[in-house]
Amino acid sequence: MPKLTKRFVENLPIKATNYFAWDDEVRGFGVRIMPSGVRTYQVQYLKGGRTRRAAIGRHGVLTAEQARAKAKDLLGKVAMGGNPVEEISIHRRASTVGALCDRFLEVHVLERCKPSTAAEYKRGLNIFIKPALGAFKVVDVKRKDIAAIHHKMKETPYQANRVLGVLSKMFNLAEVWGLRPDGSNPCRHVPKYRELKREAFLSQSELQRLGATLAACELDGSESPYIVAAFRLLILTGCRLGEIQTLKWEYLTAKRMELPDTKTGARRIPLPKAARDVLAALPRVVGNPYVVCGAVEGRHITDLQHPWRRVRERAGLPHTRIHDLRHTYASNAVSSGMPIQMVGKLLGHTQIQTTMRYAHLADDPVLKAAEENASSLQSALGIGSQPVNYLRVVP
Questions:
Q1: What is the spatial distance between Cα 43 and Cα 75, in angstroms, rounded to a whole number?
Q2: Where is the Tyr recombinase domain positioned along the sequence (predicted)?
């Protein structure tokens, strides 16, 4: 066969079956002529005792010279010990990000995550990740692709960072499952947006207003005793919303709540007398194992957000969240002089860094102690208590 050129390829006759015409200049480079008239450039070589062949591109889309250059590149890789046709085949069969999302959800999220976390992961996968990357091959996703998704969500930085976290975990598992090379997570070095942590808590006067409002709701029946008890227990125990919402009578002992499964695993939570008094006043419903009964027979309450909005409006606390009651518990403990480590144990934190957000509140008892100590030493030193005028000019 002569050298493949545009004219030569276009003049090749159409036959009833496929056939190949091979280039005399580059061994292994040829063109395949289909009965339909479609002409496709091919590369072919022997590797491991087997003939390997792959299409390079259609004639008309590629010129003969472009196809020859690509064939030379692939055959050069073969000469260096590579197997580019096999690599192309593997890539075509490679998993897509959409399939990875499904596997991640089924194998990891649904088996290892709490239902609320699983629901949030599923939402992120379906709304943000699959539409943007679902058709990509897992091996083809680059850092710039991840950065583009993250940047697109810049107006919602908290959500953007959560999605970045899901992507990072998913691509770590892609490495474990052999879908990407080790150490190739494309989420690495994509900076998160700054998050301003909201550590709101109630002052003593606000806490008193809330207490009075809960008492009024209980008295006039505007809220059920279970709703009122739930908010009181959140304040008195520092528990997470879900821990009180799904609390069962069987989890209660004389002085503790023995929770078998929480965000951080099984927890033993102290039950102070004030909380025990709230529980003692709460009527049990026959056939319902839950402390905070819901409208559905035998089930716990599923919505405390709407009742909370009513309560906080009535108390004049329109911007207070339910989670702020947990912050109030923690801030009160730290401000009273309780060690940070102890507060962390009460809150069920697994890392001290999580509790350290309240560390600045420990300054109040320290300042008070310093003031009291200095006052006791003042008389011994014979120092007067008159205020000093720092603006006085000494002649």
A1: 8
A2: 197-372
